[in-house]
Amino acid sequence: MTYRGRFAPSPTGDLHLGSAAAALFCAAAARRARGRLVLRMEDLDGPRVIPGKDAAILADLRWLGVAWDEGPDVGGDAGPYVQSARHARYEAALAELAARGLTYLCDCSRAEIARVASAPHAGEEGPRYPGTCRAHGMRARAFKRPPAVRLAVPEDTVIEAHDAVLGTLRERVAEVTGDFVLRRGDGVFAYQLAVVVDDVAMGVTEVVRGADLASSAPRQVLLARLLGGDPPSFAHVPLLLGADGARLAKRAPRMTLAEQRAAGRTGPQVARAIVRAYAHELGEAVDPVAALAGALDWSRLAGLTVRVPAELG
Predict the structure, then answer these.
(1) Residue ranges with strand state E in 103-212
(2) Strand partners, 106
(3) Of 267, 263, 296, which Cα lies nearest the Cα of 282?
(4) Which candidate, 228, 170, 225, 231, places its Cα nearest to that of 199?
(5) Helices 288-295 and 267-278 sit at what angle, rounded to 10 degrees?
(6) How many Å apart are CA 298 and CA 209, to the nearest integer?
(7) Minimum mean pLDDT among 81-85, 203-207, 218-222, 275-279: which range?
(8) pLDDT at position 121, please?
(9) Which run of H or of E encompasses 289?
(10) What domains sit in the chain, N to C, each tagged with a CATH number?
């Protein structure tokens, strides 16, 4: 099978150094495998999307030295490569799950869920959902607020996601996050559904991304299998942290590629500095992506703490 990787930014702001690191690893992994890299713009959350940022992100990536084989600007057989143009696919996936009795309507608020959750969960979706609305299924009723659609997670299923950096991620999803959201109450398709539908449809074989998204992998493997698709493998790379060891804030000064360019640095300079932070011996490479591809060893990244180089701060 031909390797197919993807980089999927959201046009909600300028590309920052942490996202740039992920993009460099995506490009390096695809080059090492002599495969293809897909660029997909994840713009579903309309209120947060900033007009023009999609084009700015593409320009920043090219400035950095990242190239892709398919995307919104170059086309390809798996398009469209913009999520806002793929709604019909998400609707079809949701309808398929609903027809099999795997979804239900939920009008619980986050505060209500937190009050009754039996096991707190520190992930991006808050505490484990206890299944309050599950018995109602998809039946209409007097809702307190516009309802979300949740996946009825199979109770006894243990999911394994294969990660080249972190090893096998094994999770009983029903016990960790519970029934998770597929479409929000405002009608926006959830990240978990959209990303799985797109990765399966685009034939993505490996997802390379930041370690902050590792907790999503078991849910995405579960959902891919429920939809009859082959889930990708994963490589969750250590986050690029600030000088203080904290996760980079999107609005931290001097952390966007636009700010780096305004400071007079070139794309290759920034790329070399980022690559050097992960692998010091590659810091003088003329082509940082090629050098990273030639030396890529996922096992070396396990447990690594990586900070933004002082020269970029």
Answers:
(1) 103-106, 148-151, 158-163, 167-172, 181-183, 206-210
(2) 148
(3) 296
(4) 231
(5) 20
(6) 12
(7) 275-279
(8) 45
(9) helix 288-295
(10) 4-82+238-312 (3.40.50.620), 87-194 (3.40.50.620)
Residue keyed to tokens 């997909």: 40
In the residue annotation, 250 being an active-site residue is answered as yes
pTM: 0.93
Nearest to 237 by CA among 19, 31, 32: 19
pLDDT value for 124 = 57
Active-site residue (options: 48, 87, 115, 250): 250
Residue 273 is which amino acid?
A
Instruction: Report the residue count for the chain.
Output: 313
Residue 41 near residue 72 (C-beta atoms within 8 A): yes
Q: Considering only CA atoms, which of 228, 188, 204, 202 is closest in space to residue 93?
A: 228
Contact at 8 Å (CB) between 187 and 149? no
Residue 254 has pLDDT above 80, yes or no: no
pLDDT in tens, 130-184: 999 999 999 999 999 999 999 999 998 899 999 999 999 999 999 999 999 999 9
The H-or-E segment that residue 54 falls in is helix 53-64
What CA–CA distance (Å, rounded) separates 161 from 142?
39
Calculate the CA 217 to chain-centre distance. 9
Find how far residue 164's CA is from the centre of its chain: 16
Q: Binning pLDDT at 50, 70 and 90, where does residue 222 land?
A: very high
Q: Which residue has the higher pLDDT, 44 or 313?
A: 44
What's the confidence (pLDDT) of residue 74?
A: 96
Residue indicated by tokens 């996601």: 161
The sign of the CA dihedral 94, 98, 102, 106 is: positive
**Residue 247 phi, psi dihedral angles, 5° rounding:** -60, 140
Structure tokens given for 65: 């030295």
The string over 79-104, giving b where at least 16 C-beta atoms fall within 10 Å of a residue's C-beta and e elsewhere, is: bebbbeebeebbeebbeebbeeebbb
In three-state secondary structure terms, 181 is strand
Q: How far is CA 254 from the centre of its chain?
A: 24
